[in-house]
């Protein structure tokens, strides 16, 4: 009789495992897809490190509800085709209960139909608004960076206070840049700004002086560049080389010290952008609900990797927190995790305080960003 029971329990365990459900004695597998190498490695490397660090910390404390976590992480290199292949592998072969990543908007958009079909939650680390909207068509898709229209509105609100009424656009022709360009133009029309130039550049371009020469001729009140490095760093250098004095704004896509390093502190001096509070956590109020978490994350990251934590690594932190909070409150199956993420309410994390809903799979507002400026090779808070 005992032998039959043992065989029966073994069969149940096998069935649960094959369905992607962690058994009591097994680990809960969380997938990670990050651009650890390639042009977007400044995004993917801190994301991968952060997820690995958090899994190790959680397991050292005994796991979640008595179960250990296992991070199954693959490097997409920022390549859409590779991201699709690896996401399929995570779901069908590795049997993960959720996927954190990818790092870029283009990759994330490519994975939407896959995770919707397979019914596995995806928590993207990219900013494009179309990743999660319309939410009715993105039941299994969430993202942790604030929507690009939030960042765009933060810039335009600050410009309005400075009396700046016109701007020139210079955006990269990838998914992130195209989405930002669309949001900026729509918001400009709503808020009474004039877009006096609309220039673009390719992700692999190494000189944007032709576009900037055209922009210089239109006498805009400001220039807004939307992209992720290395493009924005090159543009910053080109602006300096051309002697352009027009105020230069960047998107939150460069909110890490890597941008200042690539552009050079001298060229980047005075550049403004919306950034998550991690970049300037020591300048915000200690009463801010994020302050303690930001300080602890930065300290843990410095201890583990010898360098400061970045906003981009924070996106993976947020994804991990959303997934593990859902596991604790709902359960460790994909459907329960999905429901738990969607019901997250006032969840304090790196990028902000998340309040998700069936109609909002990002859950962040203008409070997620602070306007910052580069000063002497570092960020300072703008008032």
From TrEMBL:
Residues 27-363 form the Leucine-binding protein domain. The keyword RNA-binding does not apply. The keyword Signal applies. InterPro entries: BCAA_transport, Leu-bd, Leu_Ile_Val-bd, Peripla_BP_I. Residues 1-24 form the signal peptide. Gene3D superfamilies: 3.40.50.2300. Keywords: Amino-acid transport, Signal, Transport. Belongs to the leucine-binding protein family. This is Branched-chain amino acid ABC transporter, amino acid-binding protein (TC 3.A.1.4.1). It comes from Trichlorobacter ammonificans. The lineage of its organism: Bacteria, Pseudomonadati, Thermodesulfobacteriota, Desulfuromonadia, Geobacterales.
């Amino acid at each position: 009789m005992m032998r039959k029971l043992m065989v029966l329990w073994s069969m149940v365990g096998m069935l649960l495992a094959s369905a992607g459900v962690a058994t009591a004695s097994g680990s809960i597998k969380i997938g990670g897809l990050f651009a650890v190498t390639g042009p977007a490695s400044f995004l993917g490397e801190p994301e991968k490190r952060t997820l690995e660090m958090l899994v190790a910390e959680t397991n050292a404390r005994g796991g979640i509800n008595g179960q250990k976590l296992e991070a199954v992480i693959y490097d997409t290199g920022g390549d859409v085709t590779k991201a699709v292949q690896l996401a399929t592998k995570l779901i069908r072969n590795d049997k993960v209960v959720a996927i954190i990543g990818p790092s870029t908007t283009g990759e994330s958009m490519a994975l939407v139909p896959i995770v919707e079909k397979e019914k596995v939650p995806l928590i993207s680390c990219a900013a494009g608004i179309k990743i999660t909207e319309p939410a009715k068509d993105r039941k299994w898709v969430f993202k942790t960076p604030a929507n690009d229209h939030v960042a765009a509105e933060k810039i335009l609100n600050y410009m309005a206070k400075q009396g700046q009424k016109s701007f020139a656009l210079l955006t990269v022709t990838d998914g992130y840049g195209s989405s930002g360009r669309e949001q900026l133009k729509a918001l400009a029309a709503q808020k009474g700004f004039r877009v006096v130039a609309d220039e673009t550049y390719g992700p692999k371009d190494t000189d944007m002086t032709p576009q900037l020469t055209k922009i210089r001729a239109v006498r805009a009140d400001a220039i807004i560049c939307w992209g992720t490095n290395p493009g924005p760093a090159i543009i910053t250098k080109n602006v300096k080389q051309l002697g352009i004095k027009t105020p230069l704004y960047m998107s939150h896509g460069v909110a890490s010290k890597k941008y200042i390093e690539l552009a050079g502190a001298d060229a980047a001096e005075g550049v403004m952008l919306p950034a998550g509070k991690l970049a300037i956590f020591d300048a915000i109020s200690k009463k801010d609900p994020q302050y303690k978490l930001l300080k602890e994350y930065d300290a843990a990251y410095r201890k583990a990797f010898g360098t400061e934590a970045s906003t981009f690594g924070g996106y993976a932190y947020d994804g991990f927190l959303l997934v593990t909070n859902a596991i604790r409150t709902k359960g460790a199956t994909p459907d329960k995790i999905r429901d738990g993420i969607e019901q997250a309410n006032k969840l304090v994390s790196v990028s902000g305080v998340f309040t998700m809903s069936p109609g909002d799979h990002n859950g962040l507002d203008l409070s997620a960003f602070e306007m910052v400026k580069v000063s002497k090779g570092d960020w300072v808070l703008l008032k």
